[in-house]
Design goal:
Blueprint (H helix, E strand, L loop, with lengths): L9 E4 L4 H10 L5 E4 L7 H13 L3 E7 L6 H15 L3 E5 L12 H7 L9 E6 L9 H17 L3 E6 L5 H13 L6 E6 L2 E2 H11 L2 H10 L7 E2 L2 H9 L6 E6 L4 H12 L12
Parallel strand pairs: 1-2, 1-10, 2-3, 3-4, 4-5, 5-6, 6-7, 7-10
Antiparallel strand pairs: 8-9
Helix pairs in contact: 1-10, 2-3, 4-5, 6-9, 7-8
């Protein structure tokens, strides 16, 4: 497995406890971006505490802000102030959040435009993208939305990177990324991929997240690996061998556990072949 493409990466976790944060700090290179996902039941205090824990451990916390779940503009400002003041958070991933709006923000764009992110000390945001499309948003609308968010962030003085939904289809990822580059979008892209986990679990996440093409690829490509864990080896190999991708790197979703995913990511970063298969139980 070529190491170049996977050398730098980010990882996404959900509610890591103190032991997991300590383990991540032991495994991951200092300063690795760790994205903290916005599960619906999490409280602002939990978010700030986790961010501070990651920062203290020498990692870079990147906090998900789900626009439609914010009940009031004051709640967002309070959260941003605490994140900056208590955890030195400077990066966010701004997403819509698949619920009906609970407050003034109808989508990620409205948070970027009206959320006062730069004034709160934020310096960079990630915005979501979908190599396999979105089950509820037309392709043309997705493309226009991406352009609008990039322009709005630039107008606010925010750096921008793109974080894609995970996929199990290297061909689909490659075509999407090349198309985006052909359209003139040169921002860094963090390519979503599932860290090592069981095939049944991958099916569950793929169905929940609407990645239909990936389900077909997973059904045919992973049948021989139904026992044990599989990782995104093939995706990494294809993207590492491709030209014209611009600044792109893996973004690992830790469906099989944050610690196992971190180990996999580090093995892939060093070009170890079959990193996913090495996790088999």
């Amino acid at each position: 497995m070529p190491a170049g493409f996977a050398h730098t990466f980010s990882i996404e976790v959900t509610r890591p406890n103190a032991a997991e944060v300590a383990a991540l700090a032991d495994i991951l290179p200092a300063g690795t971006a760790v994205y903290f996902s916005a599960v619906p039941t999490i409280t602002p205090h939990e978010i700030v505490t986790a961010a501070a824990s990651l920062r203290k451990a020498g990692l870079e916390p990147v906090i998900h802000i789900a626009a439609r779940r914010i009940r009031a503009a004051a709640d967002l400002q309070d959260l941003l102030a605490r994140l900056r003041g208590e955890a030195d958070v400077r990066r966010l991933l701004v997403i819509g959040g698949d619920v009906e709006p609970l407050g003034p923000y109808l989508d990620a764009l409205s948070v970027i435009q009206k959320g006062g992110l730069r004034e709160a000390g934020m310096e960079e945001i990630g915005i979501g993208a979908y190599p396999e499309g979105h089950p509820r948003i037309a392709p043309a609308r997705l493309e226009a939305s991406l352009d609008e968010k990039i322009a709005a962030a630039a107008a606010q003085g925010l750096r921008v990177h793109i974080v894609s939904q995970f996929s199990f289809s290297p061909d689909r990822i490659l075509a999407w990324l090349k198309q985006m580059r052909a359209c003139g979008i040169a921002r860094p892209v963090k390519i979503g991929m599932a860290g090592p986990t069981s095939v049944p679990a991958l099916f569950r996440y793929a169905k929940r997240c609407g990645v239909a093409a990936s389900l077909r690829g997973l059904a045919t490509g992973s049948a021989a690996s139904l026992f044990g864990h599989v990782g995104p080896d093939r995706i990494i190999e294809v993207l590492a061998a491709a030209d014209g991708l611009g600044e792109a790197m893996p973004h690992y979703f830790s469906f099989g556990g944050a610690v196992e995913t971190a180990r996999y990511a580090c093995e892939a970063a060093h070009g170890k072949h079959g990193a996913g298969r090495a996790m088999a139980h």
